[in-house]
Amino acid sequence: MKIITLEEHYSDQRIMDANRAFQGERPKMTPEQEEAMKFLMSRAFPGPELLDFDARLQYMDENRIDMQVLSFTTPVTDAVPAQDAVRICRQANDITKQHMEEHPDRFAGFASLPMADPKAAAEELERCVKDLGFVGTMLAGRQKGRFFNEAEFLPVFEKAAGLHVPVYFHPALIPMDVQQSNYMSDAYSYIVGSEFASAGYGWHSEVGIQIVRMILSGIFDRLPELNFICGHWGETIPCFLDRMDAILDQSITGLQKTISEYYREHVYITPSGILSTDQLEYIVKRMGADHVLYAVDYPYLKPDNVYEFLTESSLTQEEIELIAHKNAERLLNL
After folding, report:
1. Cβ-proximal residues to 85 (8 Å cutoff; 6+ apart), any chain
2. CA-CA distance, 300 to 46, in Å (whole number)?
């Protein structure tokens, strides 16, 4: 059985150096904040595997992963001016293409886009798909605090729909004011609050909100060919679909369909390496196996039961193969 995984990150020293030039001076921190920052950075950079493709290929072979869809780990930050973001993203995508050419049967690519300049981002997506053979794009977090349902970002989604490639929404650092108001407290340490605001919950809440905002904006009425991918078993949204249908009903949204109808038709879900059998069975029941894809979140997570998680599940062989590779082949035009 073939396995294709979609949320597989890497980096390159050249892109890291290019970004570093725009970081500026770090704000002054308290000793507690300094300690938390060191701890969080030790988790944020998962070691040499982020840069080491020999180790990557070895992991893939050991876990029977036939292909990874590569994505850069935050190649462009909010601090980078639009013109420089365009240049850095273009360089990042060219590097991804090099890895694809070196191992054409093992790697595909998601485009990194300079969302600070949506018109340029749409043009770069077209270059990546038409000239470089990429299979979609991955967007992380917000752009300068703005969610992507805002009208200024529409050219990117119009381009993705026209090219018939999906947009993968991925977590990123959330705004500091949101971190402070929602996640920090004197009742627990700064480290706990920082983790609560990031991979512990905050990141995932933000992506779930992002997807629902996109739906409520009427994006799928306007672009019925558009599709999204959402990791971490749907970032909590699948279990709230019935509630949102009841409260955010068509009488107030003015949309052509219910939220759950849009979600089940246009959103594809991955586990992002959270290999929980209970969640797998729940998501297949809620979404159907034809809207579930596979993702490991390498190298941030490196589970050693990638193959067995599917083959030893209660799913049928047809459902297993859909999730393992057939859905990806169809959605990504592989």
Report:
1. 76, 114, 115, 116, 117
2. 6
